Structure formats: structure tokens, C-alpha cells
Amino acid sequence: MAYPPATIPASTLSREVALAINQQLRDAYGRHQWDPRYDPLSELIYTVLSQNTSDVNSHRAFQRLRACFPAWEKLLDAPVEEIAAAIQPGGLAQVKAPRLKTILARIIEERGTLDLSFLKDKDVSSAREWLRGLPGVGAKTASIVLLFSLGKPALPVDTHVHRVTRRLGLIGERDSAEKAHDILEALLPPEDYYDFHVNVLTHGRRVCTARKPR
Q1: Using one digit for the tens of pLDDT, what is the confidence trace for 128-183?
Q2: Distances from the Cα of 137 to the Cα of 27, 88, 158, angstroms
Q3: Alpha-carbon distance 148 to 133, whole Å?
Q4: How far is CA 83 from CA 53, 94, 150, in A?
Q5: How far does the chain reach from its first CA to its final CA, in angstroms?
């Protein structure tokens, strides 16, 4: 392969490569109009349920949870065993049920209400910091809530995004998903985060699969 001249800073080269990859992904999978999936709290709960399971299972668990507890305030008051039974299809129910109750209790303690719409008025850094202060909420979960529910420029790094961007060389072989959030956000314009996340996710599912990538 032809190597770039040594006079080009590595960071500049990385940005050029990221932009080129982003364009190729758009050519392949298109551009996407942001459309909020859930309110911020529901998005947070959905994302907790999606941890370490498939999309199909997490969706089923979320729908069952909603059916059992139409108002999230009822979830806060429910026994852990009832919550675990509702989300059992999503896996790790005995871990996620008490986590959900703890998160909701912390929100009530800090805000006096389960309404997270106040995050919309915060800048990305402050909103992310607040979310990450909740029990069990890391960079990925916080970024998903900010991007998908509030339309804020945050770039979630899930399993697919971490795998694909590592294989493409946008992040290092040993860079954690946590570190990858900062690296990728620095490489792309904020207005491109939504398309990039959705398209890399699609590419990871269809082509750059974990086993036997095409």
C-alpha cells in the first residue's frame, strides 16, 4: 500500500479517513432523518434492557415491561421479583430488575420527578455527566439517550460500532469502547454522528459481522 507523507499529521489523516468512510457508508446505506424513538426516561430503560442481549429480546422485554407497568412510577414501587418476571425474555433479569429500580430511585432523589426532559436544555457535556452519575449508566447508555431521544450530538459506541471502527483502523486495537466515544467524536463533525452511528451499525449487522465478516 502507499503510505502517506510523513509531513501529514496523523490526526489530520485520521479525520480525512473518517470523513471518507462516513461518505462511503452514506453512499451504501443513505442519510437518515432523526426521529425520537422514546422519551428520555423510556429510552434509558430500553437501553438498560438492551445490554448484553439481542435487539429482538430487548424489544420483547421492554414491551412486556410497559404492559405490566404503563406508568414508570409503578415500576419504582414494584417488587424486584415482578420486574424480573416481566423482563425475563431480555436475559439477565435478576441483574437488570434491581438496577432499574435503583436508577429510578436516584432520579426521584435528585429531581423529585421521573421526567428527564430537563436534559434537553443542558449542553451535551453536562447532560452526559448527569446521566453517567446514575447507577450502571456508562458512556454508551448516556450517548444513546442523548442522541436517539434528545437529538443531541453524542456518538454511541455499541458492540457493532466498536468492532467495525476498530477493524477500519479508526480506533486502536486496544482502545476500549469507553475511549472510542471520545476518539470517534473528535474525528467527525457533530452533525454526522447520527448517520455514522446508524450506518456503521447497519454495516456491522449486514457485512462486518463478528464472525466470518463478509
Answers
A1: 999 999 999 999 999 999 999 999 999 999 999 999 999 999 999 999 999 999 99
A2: 34, 20, 13
A3: 19
A4: 17, 9, 26
A5: 21
Q: If we measure between CA atoms, which residue out of 6, 77, 22 comes closest to residue 189?
A: 22
Contact 173, 213 (CB under 8 A): no
User: Model pTM?
Assistant: 0.91
114 burial type by CB count under 10 A (0-12 exposed, 13-18 middle, 19+ buried): middle
Q: Which three cell numbers stand for residue 200?
A: 456503521
Q: Note if 140 is an active site residue.
A: yes
Please pick, among 140, 152, 179, 212, the residue that the annotation labels catalytic: 140
C-alpha cell at 156: 454511541
Q: Give φ, ψ of 195 to 5 degrees.
A: -60, -45
